[in-house]
């Protein structure tokens, strides 16, 4: 037993000395100096708020339709004897031009018969006038002053006059029917379609085709109430000299090329659509096949176009990036001096893919944060980074206190023990 202790004792002494030495070394090690620098905040990107002038616009879509379009129909019946070569699908027509003529022989005979009746009625009236004068002369010679109207032949004269008036009316009716055998274009325009040809027998009111005026085309643009507000248009708007309608820019692709036409709003619809809760704004383009065309490309009826309506103008308004808008009316502003987050509520006037526009809530030059932030709160620490125009990134760091600054301040004021006078 004594021999075992003698063998183990040296090893125990070595272990004890090692532990004691480690403890002594740790006790003599200088304490690590604590840093006074604040922890870095969340890294976020931000863009400055700018002050701009803005013209509000509203975008809509609609189909082009002619302002004037009618069905061509005859007022008389008969066989088609003539069709104008311009009365074809897509043809140009002129006001007063004969488009279709119905065979007029029967109506010409009707005019001849009516003229014969007029001549007979005129002869009868002349005879009754002469007989009435003779009757009055005879009564005067007999000294009869109280003769009856029949004796004075007044009813016979009135009947003859009525017969003449009726005959003349029949003549006018026959002449009118003859004139109506020609179907005449009431305005300058184009032919949308034709559904008749020579030799076909037609009845009054039967459709011969459709024509439309080429002086003006319209586009009905459905808008929401908020969009009407951006345009500054009331529901009962009508274009006039005192309140002219806003300009409208129409665009569409025609023949594989983008085309642009310029018109204006002339009126609003009479009622709100009960299903969509929208109201139609009617825009017009003058002379779509002439001066209003885009390099010869007309804004033809049936074309589906995009429309950009020019609204109210705002001289001074703030704009922040659209990605900086949180919810409906909040911006996160990063203060580069303090490195703190400020949550602002702004009065949004308008927003689109280019930005969010407002009047109050943030000032020009302040940095609107575009990066996502989870669980934000006022005073949250941030490191604000700004992407410059040259592609570089500027890091806005808040001022940091120098190491040991607090100890030096305490020494200078005499509140500390180090550096104090005895």
Query: What is the radius of gyration computed over CA atoms, rounded to a whole number of angstroms?
Result: 49 Å
Helix tally?
Answer: 5
Order of helices and strands: HEEEEEEHHEEEEEHEEEEEEEEEEEEH
Considering DSSP H and I runs of 4 or more, what fraction of the residues is helical? 25-40%
Name the overall outline.
elongated
Largest sheet: 7 strands, mixed
How many strand units? 23
What does the average pLDDT come to?
Answer: 83
> Unreliable runs, pLDDT <50, ≥5 residues?
402-422
- Estimate what percentage of residues fall within beta strands: 25-35%
Please state the structural category: alpha+beta
End-to-end separation? 66 Å
Topology:
Layout: H1 2-28, E1 42-48, E2 50-66, E3 69-72, E4 78-83, E5 92-93, E6 98-102, H2 105-142, H3 154-179, E7 182-184, E8 189-194, E9 201-202, E10 209-213, E11 216-223, H4 225-231, E12 247-254, E13 257-268, E14 279-286, E15 304-320, E16 325-326, E17 330-335, E18 340-345, E19 348-352, E20 355-358, E21 367-369, E22 382-387, E23 393-396, H5 405-413
Parallel strand pairs: 1-22
Antiparallel strand pairs: 1-21, 2-11, 2-15, 3-10, 4-6, 4-9, 5-8, 6-7, 8-10, 11-14, 12-13, 12-15, 13-14, 15-20, 16-17, 17-18, 17-21, 19-20, 22-23
């Amino acid at each position: 037993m004594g021999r075992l202790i003698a063998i183990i004792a040296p090893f125990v002494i070595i272990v004890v000395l090692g532990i004691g030495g480690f403890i002594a070394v740790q006790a003599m090690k200088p304490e690590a100096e604590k840093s006074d620098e604040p922890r870095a905040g969340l890294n976020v990107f931000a863009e400055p708020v700018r002050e701009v002038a803005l013209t509000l616009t509203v975008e809509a879509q609609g189909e082009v339709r002619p302002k004037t379009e009618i069905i061509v129909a005859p007022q008389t019946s008969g066989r088609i004897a003539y069709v104008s070569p311009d009365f074809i699908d897509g043809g140009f027509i002129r006001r007063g031009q004969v488009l279709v003529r119905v065979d007029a022989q029967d109506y010409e005979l009707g005019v001849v018969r009516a003229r014969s009746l007029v001549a007979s009625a005129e002869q009868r009236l002349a005879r009754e006038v002469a007989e009435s004068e003779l009757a009055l002369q005879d009564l005067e010679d007999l000294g009869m002053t109280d003769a009856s109207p029949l004796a004075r032949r007044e009813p016979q004269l009135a009947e003859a006059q009525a017969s003449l008036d009726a005959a003349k009316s029949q003549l006018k009716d026959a002449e009118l029917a003859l004139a109506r055998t020609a179907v005449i274009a009431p305005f300058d325009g184009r032919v949308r379609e034709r559904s008749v040809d020579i030799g076909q027998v037609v009845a009054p009111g039967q459709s011969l085709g459709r024509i439309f005026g080429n002086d003006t085309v319209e586009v009905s643009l459905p808008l929401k109430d908020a969009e009407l507000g951006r345009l500054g248009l009331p529901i009962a708007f009508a274009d006039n000299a005192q309140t002219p309608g806003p300009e409208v820019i129409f665009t569409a692709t025609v023949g594989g090329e983008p085309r642009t036409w310029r018109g204006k709003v002339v009126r609003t619809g009479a009622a709100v659509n009960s299903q969509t809760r929208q109201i139609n704004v009617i825009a017009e383009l003058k002379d779509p096949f002439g001066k209003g065309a885009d390099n010869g490309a007309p804004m033809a009826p049936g074309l589906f176009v995009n429309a950009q309506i020019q609204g109210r103008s705002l001289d001074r308004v703030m704009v922040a990036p659209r990605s900086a808008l949180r919810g409906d009316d909040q911006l996160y502003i990063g203060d580069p001096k303090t490195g703190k987050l400020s949550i602002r509520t702004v009065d949004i006037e308008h927003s689109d893919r280019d930005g969010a526009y407002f009047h109050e809530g943030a000032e020009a030059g302040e940095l609107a944060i575009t990066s996502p932030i989870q669980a934000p709160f006022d005073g949250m620490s941030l490191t604000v980074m700004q992407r410059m125009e040259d592609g570089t990134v500027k890091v806005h760091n808040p001022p940091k206190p120098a190491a040991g600054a607090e100890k030096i301040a305490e020494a200078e004021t005499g509140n500390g023990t180090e550096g104090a006078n005895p």
